[in-house]
Amino acid sequence: MKQSTMTQTTEATLATAPDTEVEELVLNKPTRRYWAVRMISIFTVLLAWEVLGRQVDPLFIAWPTQIGAAAIDMIHSGELVGAFLESMKTLTLGFVLASIVGIALGLVIGRYRYVDASTDWLVNALYATPLVAITPLVILWFGLGFQAKLFIVFILAVFPVLINTASGVRNVAPHLVDVGVAFAANERTIFLKIILPAAVPFMMTGIRLGVGRAIIGMVVAEFFTAINGLGALIIKYGNQFETAAMFVPILSLMLMGVVYTAIAMRFERWVAPWRFTDSD
Amino acid sequence: MTIMTNDEEIVGTRPAHRRVKLGVRKVSKTFRIRSEDGKTQTHLNVLRDISFDVEENEIVSLIGESGCGKTTLLRIVQGLMRHDAGAIEVDGHAVSGPGRDRGFVFQQASLLPWRTAQSNVEFGLEIQGVDPKIRAERAKQLLRLVGLDQAATRYPHELSGGMQQRIGLARAMAIDPSILLMDEPFSALDAQTREVLQRELLRIQADAKTTILFVTHDLDEAIYLSNRIVVLGARPGRVKEIIDVPFAGERPDLPVLRGSPEFQEIRQHIWQLIGNQSMPAHT
Ligand SMILES: Nc1ncnc2c1ncn2[C@@H]1O[C@H](COP(=O)(O)OP(=O)(O)OP(=O)(O)O)[C@@H](O)[C@H]1O
Ligand SMILES: [Mg+2]
C-alpha cells in the first residue's frame, strides 16, 4: 500500500489512449490535402504542356489534346489495343518466368556455397552487361517472332531477382537462425521455416527491380523486330513523323509500368503481410 | 574459491537432497580471434573450468561483468555453441546439442517477424511435428499464461518490447522444457515492465515447476529472482563464488525487498566481488 501513489502514476502513463486513434486524427487531413496538391500539380503540368507544346513545331512535340485525339483514332482502328495486348503478353510471360527461375536459382545459389563459388563470376558478369546489346544475336537465334522478345524480357529480368534472392538467403540474420537451432530444428526445416521467409523481402526487391528491366527489354526487342507490340508502333509512327500518334504507345508503356509496379507491390503485401500491417 | 559454508543449514532455503537437474562440468571455451595487429591469430580464453549445479525447480542466476562469458556459457548449455572441454549434463546425462528438454529465451526476443504472436509460440511444437490443433490449443494456453491472449493474431512489430519478451517466454515454454535458459530477457525493458515480468516469471515458474538458469547483470534482479547466484569473474571467465539467497520461497515485491538489510548485504557483497566502481545508490 505504501506504493499506491507510484502505482497510480504508472497506470496513468500506461493508460494513455490507444495511439491508433491519435494517429488517424493527425494523418487524415494532410493525406487528403496532399492528394489535392497532387491533382493541382498534374493539371498545371498538363496545361503548361498544352500551351507551350502548341508554340513548337508539331514534328518535335505533341500536346495532350492532340495525343488524346490520336489515341481515340488508334483505339477505334483496334491498333492500340492489339499492340497493348501483344506487349502485355510478352512482358507478363517473360517476367513471370524470370521471377520463378530467378527465385529458384537464387535459393540454390544462396544456400550452397559451392554452387555460389562456381557461378557468381558468371552471374555478376551477366548482370553487369547491358544485355539488350545481345538483342541482334537473340533475333538470329529465335527469329523475329514472340520467342525472341520473350527471351530478351526473361534474360533482363532474371538477374536482379536471382541476385537479390541469393543475397537474401545469405544475409538472414543469424539470431533468427539461432531460433531454429535452439528448438532443435534440422537443417532442412531451418531453411524452409526461417531462411526462406526471411529472404522474401529480398526476393520482392529483386522482382520490383526486375519489372523496370523487363519493360526496357520488351521495348528494345520490339524496336528490333518491329512487327508488333507497342515498341513497333513507336517505330512505325516515328518513321511516319506522326509525333502525336507516336506519343500514344509511349504513354501506354508508362501506364503499363505503373500498373506492373503496383501489381508487384500488391503481390509483396500478399506474400509478406507482416511488413505492411502498420500502414493501411 | 567457492564459498559454500554452513549458511545453507542456517538459512534452510535449499532442501538437502534435491536432484541436480543441470550440471555444468569443467566447461572451457576458447575463441580464436585476430590479434591486435590484425595479421595473426590469437586465442581468447573466455571460459575456464566452469562448474556448478542447478537443482530441480531452482532458479540460478549467472552474473558478472560485461564480456565475462555469460552469453557464451548459456549458448553452450543450450547447444547453440560447442565447448572445447568439459560437459553439460541434463538429469545426469551428457548432452551435445539442442534438445526438447531445454527452452531458450533470447535477449532480444528474436521472434520470427513473419509469424503472428500465436504462430511464434507454436514454432517449437511445429518443429516437433505436433498436430496443428493440439499446438494451437497449447499456444493459446501459454498466451493466457503470459497475459497476451488478446494479441494472438498480431505480428511482432505490432507488439511492445515487453509483449515481445513475453511471447519469447511463451514460445520457450510451449515445448514444456524442464529447463529454461534465459539470456538477459528483461534488460531492454523499462523498470516497471521489468518488475511486472519478474513477478510473472516467479509465478509461472512456481506453476510449471521449471528449472531456470538466468543471465543478468542487474544485481537486484538476480537477488530477487534466484535461489542461488553464480558470480563469474572475467578473463578468463571462471566461477568466483556461488551465493545462496535467503529469500527464496515466498517473496515480497522487489521494492519492499530492496529495503531489507539482508538484501543490501548480499547486494554489497556481490558488488565487491564483481569489483565495479560506480555503485548506483539504491536505498
Ligand atoms: N563468436 C565469437 N567469436 C569470438 N569472440 C567471441 C564470440 N562470442 C563472444 N566472444 C567474446 O567472448 C567474450 C564473452 O562474450 P559473451 O557474449 O559471452 O559476454 P557476456 O558475459 O554475455 O557479456 P554481456 O554482459 O556484455 O552480454 C567477449 O570478449 C566476446 O568478445
Ligand atoms: Mg551477453
Give the CATH topology of the largest domain in chain B. Rossmann fold
Structural class of chain A: mainly alpha
Task: Tell me what the CATH architecture of the largest domain in chain B is.
Answer: 3-Layer(aba) Sandwich
Identify the overall geometry of chain A: globular
Number of strands of chain A: 0
> Hey, roughly how much beta strand do the residues of chain A contain?
under 5%
CATH class of the largest domain in chain A: Mainly Alpha
Short note summarizing the structure:
The complex is a heterodimer of chains A (280) and B (283). Chain A is mostly helical.
List key phrases describing it.
heterodimer; A: 280 residues; mainly alpha; 2 domains; 81% helix; 0% strand; B: alpha/beta; Rossmann fold; 10 strands; 34% helix; disordered C terminus; binds adenosine-5'-triphosphate; binds magnesium ion
Write up this protein:
The complex is a heterodimer of chains A (about 280) and B (about 280). With about 280 residues, chain A is mostly helical. Chain A has 2 domains: about 5-55; about 70-275, MetI-like fold (Orthogonal Bundle). Chain A is about 80% helix and about 0% strand. Chain A contains 11 helices and no strands. In chain A, helix 3 (about 65-75) crosses helix 11 (about 245-270). The longest helix of chain A has about 40 residues, at about 185-225. Chain A is globular and about 70 Å long. Chain A starts with a helix and ends in a 9-residue tail after the last helix. Mean pLDDT of chain A is about 85; it is low at about 1-25. Chain B has about 280 residues and is an alpha/beta fold. Chain B is built from 9 helices and 10 strands. A 6-stranded mixed β-sheet of chain B has the order 6-7-8-3-9-10, with helices on both faces. In chain B, strands 2-1-4-5 form a 4-stranded antiparallel β-sheet, covered by helices on one side. In chain B, a hairpin with a 6-residue loop joins strand 1 (about 20-35) and strand 2 (about 40-55). In chain B, helix 3 (about 115-125) crosses helix 4 (about 130-145). Mean pLDDT of chain B is about 80; it is low at about 1-15 and about 275-283. The interface of A and B includes residues 183 and 277 of A. The structure holds adenosine-5'-triphosphate and magnesium ion. The site of magnesium ion has 2 residues of chain B, from helix 2.
